[in-house]
Amino acid sequence: MKSFGTGLLMLLIVAVFLMVWIAMPWQGVVVLAAVLGLWMALTRRGRQTWQVTRVGLSTVTQRLGSSSVVVVGIAGVVGVLVAMLAMSEGFAETLRATGNDRTAIVLRGGSQAELNSVLDRDSANVVIQAPGVKKGADGKPVASSELVVVANLPRKGEPDSDANVPIRGVSGDVWALRDQVKIVEGRRFTPGLRELIVGKGAKAQFAGLDVGKSLRLAGQTWTVVGTFESHDALESELWGDTQSVASAYRRGSSVASVTVLLDSPAAFDTFKASLAADPRLKVDVSTTHDYFSKQSEGLTKVLRIVGITVGIIMAIGAVFGALNTMFAAIQARAREIATLRAIGFRGVPVVASVMLETMLLALLGGAIGAGLVWVVFNGYSASTLGANFSQVVFRFHVSGDLLWTGIKWALAIGFIGGLFPAVRAARLPVTTALREL
Q: Which phi-psi region, left, alpha or beta, contains residue 192 (left: φ > 0; alpha: ψ -120 to 50)?
């Protein structure tokens, strides 16, 4: 019964620790480390803890094989977790950067994305003339009626592997609407001609998109005349004139969406209210920032769930690795620990020293795993299927917050992996341990 109660208490300690640890910001951890340092420097038991810890660390080289199991296992957990979270963060950040609060996008009511939205010409004209839309120097509203279609193109280095690439038909006002888009090679397309400009991301991922190349799309020959960069999801697209794209893909005069430049972010409510009150329209209105952020929510959530699930499974394995390593270390040092207790070292320094040793090994593993992911994956370009059932090119983003998350996971694994061996070391009978060979 006593053993059962002790085990239940330790599980409760682990649960409370994990709850507090997950919620604790980095400032709290720094304070906690400072308090621990002061305790070890200013109190008798703290100094005893440091002495025992120093002895334990000095024998790590003698236990290099078993200690490396802890370090490598935790490095693997942290590496996989941070890489998966960096993928979801990079994808979400790419889409969030695509929109802003100065522009609004209008789709047919109930449409989840531009690909399944259809607006006729009359509806598009009503949207463009709505209150709140900024007028250009010529007195005309700054707006772009746009059409999004999908084409199959081969990936670079994989001629037999096609992927969906979005082609966006845009109007002449798109350059004022999306001033982040810059031509970096070649020129803009000419309205009315079958010419395309391609995003840098699409050009890096797919074959045949160099300036001057010709593409066969929808039974028509198109010429690539320029390359643009925008540092957002638009770099995954090919752009052409709306009317040319609509003609090639037999879309008549309809468009998928209308994007407008607002007088100011505050004008959005007026713009949205006027469209909602118009009986001729049934549309959904949102800022481009909200629209593109929403497009990333589903996949980002899936990637985070997968990353955390895989991380938990691997963490369980790493915990068992740490348990085995520290139990073996305590068994090898049983006489040493018993001798320390016999000459006056109490249970607290023994427990704390074993915990510190395990968490220092865990910290080393976490730093290695997080560092490797940052070196290898930060800025790494990849593509995945987006809301328009087409490829979105994005870059992994290994932020400081993700690195800190990885380190926290490593320390949590070290805490759990060291707690049970530490308690066993403190409860080891002195007379029994001294008799062991």
A: left
- Which residue among 256, 281, 306 closes a domain? 281
Computed from CA positions of residues 30, 36, 42, 47, in that sequence, does the dihedral angle turn out positive or negative? negative
The answer to whether residue 362 scores a pLDDT higher than 50 is: yes
Does 304 lie in the same domain as 187?
Answer: no
Coil, strand, or helix at residue 184?
strand
CA–CA separation, 6 and 409 (whole Å): 25
Alpha-carbon distances of 275 from 268, 283, 286, 288, 351, rounded to whole Å: 11, 8, 11, 16, 68
Q: Are 196 and 63 within one domain?
A: no
**Rounded CA separation 104/46 (Å):** 61
What domain range includes position 336?
A: 15-96+296-435
pLDDT above 60: residue 277? yes
Same domain, 90 and 127: no
Give DSSP secondary structure letters for 253-307. Answer: T-BSEEEEEBSSGGGHHHHHHHHHH-TT--EEEEEHHHHHHHHHHHHHHHHHHHH
33-53 confidence digits (pLDDT tens): 899 889 888 888 888 888 877
Domain boundary among 281, 306, 334: 281
Distance CA 385, CA 391 (A): 5
Shared-domain flag, residues 300 and 269: no
Task: Decide if pLDDT at 339 tops 70.
Answer: no
Of 98, 123, 118, 93, nearest to 108 (Cα)?
118
What's the token pair of residue 276? 């909602």
